[in-house]
Structure formats: structure tokens, C-alpha cells
């Protein structure tokens, strides 16, 4: 269409250019992202410096770093950080060892491998809330199967102040070990067979092959798996909510995420809960950076 | 994009908008009632069909599981959510609902539209009035409730057991009238080798579990949460009587309850009883219907009920139950009020009681029909006279949370009773000071 004709037409009669169509498609997404992600992030950062209760008519009142100071000097908060740290270390460590071990086993060929692999992956596909609820029955000291099989009638798991955390670790490992296994298996499958063949020609031992071929080749993927699991475990909420009844017994399994929930929704203390959420965010970012640095190191980029 | 394509999009959008508007206009009026997920909510759904039939206004009853009930409703109120028209909230919510302007004040409206003289007075105060004694109402009683006990007659009324009990304790085996008697009976029936335990009481951290179980022991032992006039708590909640009460409650839980029972709330207590694990169980009366059916309770035929026992310094029972409040953010306030007016007619209250609801209507509550309807209704009626409640101030959720954490810690042995109560006193003092109720001395 000649430009002069196009310019004479009213705007609503003109056909859209490719650029305009692109903008028309992208703008709603961008607006939605700004409204649903960016704005709440900035607003909650502002609220973390305010005294504000969501269900009170008063507007947020700027208090500077008072919320952060109060949180970081509260022994209860430190207890929750200790619980979370212990859980992350124990659960992710267990999942790593078991997951990698299982991946090494599944890397071999054997009859029924496909079926077994599928069965192993099922826990990962279940909802954590459902998992928490049925493990609560499994751990029950009166009619649970664990105590029955171990011949320990009346042995308490989720209601014992020291054993409750171990119960969480067991359930989390049951659920997420297949995830580490799956990623490690992908890494193992990607190692060229020629490397092992060359090593065999040089009469390298199994340990040598594992130490100098398998581990270096698979470690970038393992680090990514650990990164994802660590981030996820540090935010743990649903399992202690259902399995140990809101972080019980007492506050023995109260993770930081549960504490944030308690501050935000039970106390409606929006200011403090936002501050605690940001503290957790900073810790998770710092941990992620450590893993990413390690990832670059093993890839030779550092 | 061509001109025709533009026109198609514009015409399509207009059609959709028109259809949406037409559908909204064509809808009948509807009100939404939010309540906890339990049998009374189902009775209410059934009852409300009558309201729809008479007025043409639809009623949706939204049920929220008990563990999330308070959090979800108050989050909705904080967000000024207009989706809930009537809130059937716990008695302790009144202060928060009233002072934070989430509830509509009903004082003047009630005088003209609700037969106040027919409402059982303690229920009206407990479920509707804030501040207590002010004559200002924010809710109309919906479902009364109290804590009670269920027991197995095949055990407590067994002649062999009676003889063995008489021999051991030198007194007849009867339904416990005092907490000490309850401990004795529970201890007597605790036989781990037979997988039988004496009692199931509330010990869990969920919602208000352990607090509701313990507070009635505390009051009956002479303790209290604090002074409701000065909001002084030091020396009350951690005073010698309260400490003795918690020591007793912890001993009862430790020695007479099944292993792993430190997280028991209403459903766990019911399960333990139905499975034959315990001889007696504490629970709210509203949860007892499930014990009467042989389909859900194999001991249904031999299940009896008794009142919460008295203590050395009094007789108090934890209050349950809720009132109907109108949300300040509702867009159907007139219809919501119309519903409450309808609900409080005597004929509707009779139907409510017939379906299984615990009415607060004096005449219906004392009617032979109501008293004969279930084996626990007479016990419930008598329990109503002894009810006492937790703090109903706006800070109640923080106060309750503190109690739940520390009392549960005492139950599991992570804290000594005195330590737990001292921790509660300290936190309650901070909460009341922050709210400006308790002045620094």
C-alpha cells in the first residue's frame, strides 16, 4: 500500500505493523509481571522497614531497621534458622549420597530397569501435603507400619522433640532422592563411552575411572541438583506443616518458612514477616552464589 | 492485521461483555456464609434450603478446615474481601472483628429484629457481646458448644472392672466428677500391653487444641490467664494454681494417654476412641454425633457421655461455638441480615436443633424434644452453665499462639510446666503492652 494512502486512513483502519503486533502481545505479559511480581517485591521490601499489621486500619509506619534488629536478636528466630540449617544439611546430604548411589546402579543394564526407575520416581510426583499426611500414619506409634516392622511398638517419631527432625529428613529424602538420581543419571548417560574404553586400555582401576572420569564429568549436573534441592529445602513449609503439625512438637521443627507464615497470617504482623522473608531470601541468594561459583570452577570458567 | 480482523475482534469482545453482563443480571441473589469444616456446617447448608425456598435468596456455605479456619478468614478480612457475607467466627474473634472494624455492629438492629429475650443470656454474651458488659453486639449466637467427655460403658460399667477398681482405690468406679477422679480412672484403664489407654485429651498445637483442653483445668484449679480489667498476667497464668494445673495436665497426658499422643486435637481424640485405644475422650459436643453411629464407631452402642469434671477450686468448662457476624466488606448486607433474622425464628431454631445444631434458643434448649434427641444433649445443656472463654481481645490470636507453643512444649517435655507458663506470661505481657492495654509499672 502506498505510504500516502496509508497515512490518509484513520488509525483504527490501518493494518498493524509487525513491531506493533509484537508490542501488543508482549505488553500484557509485561504489565502482569510488573503487577504480580515486581510491584509486590518492591512493596514488601518497603513494608519490611515499616510497622504494619495487614488487618488494622492504620497505614504502614516507617521504623527503619527496627524489624530486622528485633528479628535478629530474637532467640526464637535463631532457633528456626538452626532447625532449617540442620534440615538442609541432613536432608540434602542424605539425598545426594543416596541419589548419586542409585544413579550409579541404574546406569547399568538389568532386567526390569525401566519399571523400577518409574517406581522410584513416583514419590517425587506426589504432593508434599499428601506425603506428609500419609507418613504421619506410617510413623504413628500405635498403628503405624514403621514401628510394626521395626518391632518397636510405641516408639515415637513425629511427636518426639529430638526425633521429629529426623522424621522430616527421612520423608524428604524418600521424596526427593529420585530427583538427584534422575539428574545424576542424565549426567552419567552423557559421558562418552570412549573415555572408559581408553581408560580400560590403560588398565585403569574402577576407582580411577570413577575419580577421574565419572565424577568430573557429572559434577556440573550434580551441583545444579544440589543447588535446586538446597534452595527448596531452605524454604521447607508443607512437610512440617502436615507431618509434625505446624512445626511441632513445641517448636522443634519450626522452619523459617513456618515462622514467616506464623508472623504473617496468625499474627498479621506484615512488617516483621516481610523482613524475615527478605533475610531468608538473602541467605538463599548467598547459598546459590556459592554453588554457582563452584559450578564455574568445575567447568573451568574461574 | 486487516480491517476485517479488527472488526471481528471488536465485535467478539462486545458479544462476550454483553453475555457476561446478561449472565450477572440474570443471577439470583446469593449470600455466602463462611464456617469451619465440620458437621454443623453441613446442618446449616441443609437448614438454609428453607431460607432459599422462602425468600429466593441462595445460600452458599463455605467450609474451611479447622487448622486454617482463623488464618484464612482473617487474611480475607485483611484484604477487605467482599466474598464472605456472613462469618460464623469463634467467640474469641469478637474483639478483633469489632475493634478492627471487620464486623458490622448489630446492637440496634438486633433490638428490632432478633428476639433477644429468647437467647440464652450467657451465650449471647459469649458469642455476641464486645466488650463484655458493654451491651454492644457484633454477632448473634449460631452454634453453642462446650467441651465434654465420651466414655466406654463396656469398660467403666463392667462389674469385673468395678470390683477391681474398688479393690485398688477403695471407692466405687463411677463417672469421674473431679479431675483427680478422672486421673484415677484413666490410670486404672491404662494397660499398654492390651493397647488400651485411659484417656485422650487435647494436647496438640493445631489451632486452639492444647489451650482449650488445659484452660478448663487451670480455671478449676484456681488459676487464670490474667486480670481482665488491668491486663496484668504475671502471677496469674504463671501463678501457683496455674502451675499445679499444668503439672496435673502434663501428668495426665504422660501417664494415661497413648504413645505419640502429644499432637492430639479433636480428630485424633475421636480416632483414638473409635479404634478402642482409649476408655475416655475429651471433645467438643459438636463432634460427638460421629460417636453415635455404628458405621463410624464400633463402640457406638456402649458410648456414654459426661461433663468436664470439677477441680479443687471450681468448675469451669471451655467454651466452644460461634456467632453469626456480618462482614463489613459484604455487598449483600441486607440479605445477610435478613438471613440472621430468619435463622432466629423459633420454628427455624427447632429445625436447627432437629438437624443436630446446638441451639442457644432458651425454649428449644430446654424442650423435651431437644433433650431426648441425643444421649449427650442433657449433658450439653448442663455444661452450658459452666462455660468460660479465652481472651476475646483483638490480640487474641497472638495470645493463643503463645499458649499453643509453650503448652505443647510442656506436654512433650521440652519445657517444665513452670518454665512454659513463665514464657507465656512474659509474651502475654509484651503483647498487652504493645497493644497499650497494660501500662508499664
Tell me what you see in this structure.
The complex is a heterodimer of chains A (302) and B (441). Chain A is mainly alpha-helical. Chain A has 2 domains: 3-47, no CATH class; 68-298, MetI-like fold. Chain A has 13 helices and 2 strands, in the order ααββααααααααααα. The N and C termini of chain A lie far apart (56 Å). The mean pLDDT of chain A is 92. With 441 residues, chain B is an alpha/beta fold. Chain B contains 20 helices and 9 strands. In chain B, helix 2 links the parallel strand 1 and strand 2. The longest helix of chain B has 24 residues, at 3-26. The mean pLDDT of chain B is 93. The interface between A and B is large, with 36 and 42 residues.
Index terms:
heterodimer; A: 302 residues; mainly alpha; 2 domains; two-stranded antiparallel ribbon; globular; B: 441 residues; alpha/beta; D-Maltodextrin-Binding Protein, domain 2; 9-stranded mixed beta sheet; 20 helices; 9 strands
Amino acid at each position: 500500500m502506498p505510504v500516502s494512502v496509508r497515512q490518509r486512513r484513520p488509525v483504527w483502519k490501518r493494518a498493524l505493523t509487525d513491531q506493533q503486533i509484537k508490542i501488543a502481545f508482549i505488553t500484557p505479559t509485561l504489565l502482569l509481571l510488573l503487577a504480580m511480581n515486581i510491584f509486590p517485591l518492591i512493596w514488601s521490601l518497603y513494608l519490611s522497614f515499616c510497622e504494619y499489621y495487614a488487618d488494622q486500619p492504620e497505614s504502614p509506619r516507617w521504623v527503619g531497621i527496627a524489624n530486622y534488629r528485633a528479628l535478629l536478636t530474637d532467640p526464637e528466630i535463631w532457633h528456626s534458622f538452626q532447625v532449617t540449617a540442620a534440615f538442609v544439611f541432613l536432608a540434602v546430604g542424605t539425598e545426594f549420597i543416596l541419589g548419586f548411589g542409585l544413579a550409579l546402579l541404574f546406569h547399568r543394564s538389568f532386567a526390569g530397569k525401566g519399571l523400577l526407575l518409574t517406581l522410584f520416581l513416583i514419590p517425587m510426583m506426589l504432593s508434599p501435603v499428601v506425603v506428609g499426611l500419609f507418613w504421619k500414619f506410617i510413623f504413628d506409634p500405635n498403628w503405624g507400619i514403621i514401628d510394626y516392622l521395626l518391632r518397636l511398638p510405641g516408639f515415637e517419631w513425629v511427636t518426639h522433640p529430638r526425633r521429629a527432625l529426623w522424621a522430616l529428613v527421612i520423608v524428604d529424602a524418600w521424596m526427593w532422592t529420585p530427583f538427584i538420581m534422575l539428574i545424576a543419571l542424565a549426567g552419567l548417560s552423557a559421558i562418552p563411552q570412549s573415555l572408559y574404553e581408553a581408560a580400560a586400555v590403560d588398565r585403569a582401576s574402577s576407582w580411577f575411572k570413577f575419580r577421574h572420569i565419572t565424577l568430573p564429568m557429572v559434577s556440573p549436573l550434580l551441583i545444579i541438583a544440589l543447588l535446586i534441592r538446597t534452595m527448596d529445602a531452605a524454604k521447607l513449609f508443607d512437610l512440617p506443616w502436615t507431618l509434625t503439625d505446624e512445626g511441632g512438637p513445641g517448636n522443634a521443627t519450626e522452619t523459617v518458612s513456618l515462622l514467616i507464615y506464623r508472623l504473617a497470617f496468625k499474627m498479621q504482623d506484615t512488617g516483621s514477616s516481610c523482613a524475615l522473608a527478605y533475610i531468608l531470601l538473602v541467605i538463599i541468594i548467598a547459598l546459590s552464589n556459592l554453588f554457582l561459583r563452584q559450578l564455574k570452577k568445575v567447568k573451568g570458567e574461574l | 492485521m486487516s480491517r476485517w480482523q479488527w472488526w471481528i475482534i471488536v465485535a467478539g469482545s462486545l458479544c462476550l461483555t454483553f453475555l457476561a453482563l446478561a449472565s450477572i443480571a440474570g443471577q439470583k441473589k446469593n449470600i455466602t456464609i463462611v464456617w469451619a469444616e465440620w458437621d454443623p456446617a453441613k446442618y446449616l447448608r441443609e437448614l438454609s434450603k428453607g431460607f432459599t425456598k422462602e425468600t429466593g435468596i441462595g445460600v452458599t456455605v463455605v467450609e474451611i478446615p479447622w487448622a486454617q479456619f482463623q488464618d484464612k478468614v482473617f487474611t480475607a478480612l485483611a484484604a477487605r474481601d467482599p466474598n464472605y457475607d456472613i462469618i460464623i467466627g469463634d467467640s474469641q474473634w469478637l474483639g478483633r472483628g469489632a475493634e478492627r472494624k471487620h464486623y458490622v455492629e448489630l446492637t440496634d438492629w438486633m433490638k428490632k429484629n432478633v428476639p433477644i429475650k429468647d437467647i440464652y443470656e450467657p451465650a449471647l454474651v459469649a458469642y455476641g457481646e464486645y466488650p463484655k458488659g458493654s451491651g454492644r453486639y457484633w454477632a448473634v449466637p449460631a452454634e453453642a458448644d462446650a467441651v465434654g467427655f465420651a466414655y466406654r460403658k463396656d469398660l467403666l460399667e463392667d462389674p469385673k472392672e468395678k470390683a477391681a477398681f474398688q479393690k485398688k482405690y477403695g471407692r466405687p468406679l463411677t463417672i469421674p466428677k473431679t479431675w483427680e477422679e478422672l486421673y484415677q480412672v484413666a490410670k486404672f484403664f491404662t494397660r499398654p500391653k492390651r493397647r488400651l489407654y485411659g484417656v485422650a485429651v487435647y494436647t496438640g498445637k493445631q489451632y486452639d487444641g492444647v489451650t482449650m483442653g488445659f484452660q478448663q483445668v487451670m480455671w478449676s484449679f484456681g488459676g487464670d490467664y490474667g486480670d481482665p480489667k488491668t491486663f496484668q498476667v504475671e502471677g496469674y497464668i504463671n501463678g501457683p494454681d496455674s502451675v499445679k494445673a499444668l503439672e496435673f495436665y502434663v501428668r495426665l497426658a504422660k501417664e494415661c494417654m497413648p504413645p505419640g499422643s502429644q499432637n492430639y486435637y479433636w480428630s485424633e481424640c475421636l480416632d483414638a476412641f473409635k479404634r478402642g485405644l482409649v476408655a475416655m475422650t475429651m471433645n467438643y459436643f459438636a463432634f460427638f454425633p460421629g460417636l453415635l453411629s455404628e458405621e463410624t464407631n464400633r463402640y457406638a452402642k456402649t458410648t456414654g457421655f459426661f461433663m468436664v469434671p470439677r477441680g479443687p477450686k471450681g468448675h469451669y468448662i471451655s467454651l466452644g461455638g460461634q456467632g453469626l457476624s456480618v462482614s463489613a466488606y459484604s455487598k449483600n448486607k441486607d440479605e445477610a441480615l435478613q438471613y440472621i433474622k430468619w435463622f432466629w425464628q423459633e420454628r427455624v431454631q427447632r429445625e436447627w436443633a432437629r438437624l443436630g445444631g446446638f441451639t442457644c434458643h432458651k425454649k428449644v434448649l430446654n424442650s423435651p424434644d431437644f433433650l431426648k434427641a441425643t444421649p449427650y444433649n442433657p449433658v450439653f445443656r448442663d455444661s452450658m452453665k459452666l462455660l468460660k472463654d479465652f481472651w476475646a481481645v483483638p490480640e487474641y490470636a497472638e495470645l493463643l499462639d503463645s499458649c499453643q507453643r509453650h503448652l505443647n512444649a510442656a506436654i512433650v517435655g521440652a519445657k517444665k510446666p513452670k518454665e512454659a507458663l513463665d514464657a507465656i506470661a512474659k509474651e502475654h505481657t509484651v503483647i498487652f503492652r504493645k497493644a497499650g492495654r497494660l501500662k508499664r509499672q
